[in-house]
Amino acid sequence: MALMRITSPHAHGPQKTSWVMQQVLLATVPGLIVLTHFFGFGTLINVLWASILALAFEALALKLRKRPIGFYLGDYSALVTAVLLGIALPPYSPWWLITVGMASSILLAKHLYGGLGYNPFNPAMVGYVVLLISFPVQMTSWAPPRGAGELPGLMEALQACFTPGNYDGVTMATPLDVLKQNNSLLVEDLWQANPQFGRWAGVGWEWANIAFLAGGLWLLYQRIFTWHAPVAMLATLTLMAALFYDGGSSASGGSPLFHLLSGATMFGAFFIVTDPVSSAVSVRGRLIYGALIGILIYLIRVFGNYPDAVAFAVLIMNLAAPFIDQYTQPRTYGHVKSGGGD
């Protein structure tokens, strides 16, 4: 009797790499709109210039590796890296800063390890950290948000990017920076003395975080990733902030709501932590991975030297992801746990 030739059971669905990347790009639109409204055209120019560079560097790397350029450019992964890095950079970043960041992301963090699927670290965060360590002045020069200063027009924004030596822009510390460096004022007084503080966190920052939260919920609805890592990250960050919050003294590390709506919290939770290549893959592993990132973000923000610690926390846990997966592997289907029976 002939046996049926069947393969092992596999799940088939429409989630090709290009479709997933397109959904991620779509989910960033609300955050980009809010950032543009509050900070001007700077972030849009960052993203557009980074996208051009990403495609160029990707094509160069593929050509050097003798891989089909059109096929790999069509997966949109380079564009996703460009958009994520462009959003993370300060608005009105100079062209050369974005160029160095994209070269680090695409050539160093991605293709040096073999391309998409082989990179152990999140490419966008590698580019961001390279820039933050190498060019701290440019990476901490944030434009004042709408309501706290005058927004540059489109031509001024282009001048700031491509002829930065001829542009004299106004910069302002972020709310995380201000709170970090405060050593004399109560949080309530600090809020009144600094125009960049909003109702809960910072002017523009809180609404940008809400917009990225909306984009993240869309990705969850589309089942691009599971809830485990982002929820674990946000839950532990909230818990840490609640445990150490002292009510608003001059030594305060900030309230839970402040940490949730400041900096890159929601952007990191739903667009960085959920990277399927560099994160943990098991269910328990994702919970542990996300929870440890949340703890690290709070510790680095409050006790470290970098106020917005998402990139450093993610890269540290990228390094630990294989170790986490090693000890959180699910039981093989059809097998029982050791000592659980015959």
Helix percent band: 55-70%
As a whole number of angstroms, the C-alpha radius of gyration is: 21 Å
Give the total of beta strands. 0
Number of helices: 17
Going by helix content, strand content and strand pairing, the class is mainly alpha
What is the domain tally? 2
Can you write the helix and strand succession as a string?
A: HHHHHHHHHHHHHHHHH
Strand content: under 5%
Main sheet record: none
- Compute the average pLDDT: 86
**Low-confidence runs:** 1-13
Report, as a whole number of angstroms, the end-to-end distance: 32 Å
Globally, the shape reads globular
Quick recap of the structure?
The protein has 342 residues and is an all-alpha fold. The chain has helices spanning 17-27, 29-39, 42-64, 69-73, 77-88, 95-108, 123-134, 136-139, 154-162, 175-181, 187-193, 205-221, 228-244, 256-260, 265-272, 283-303, 310-326.
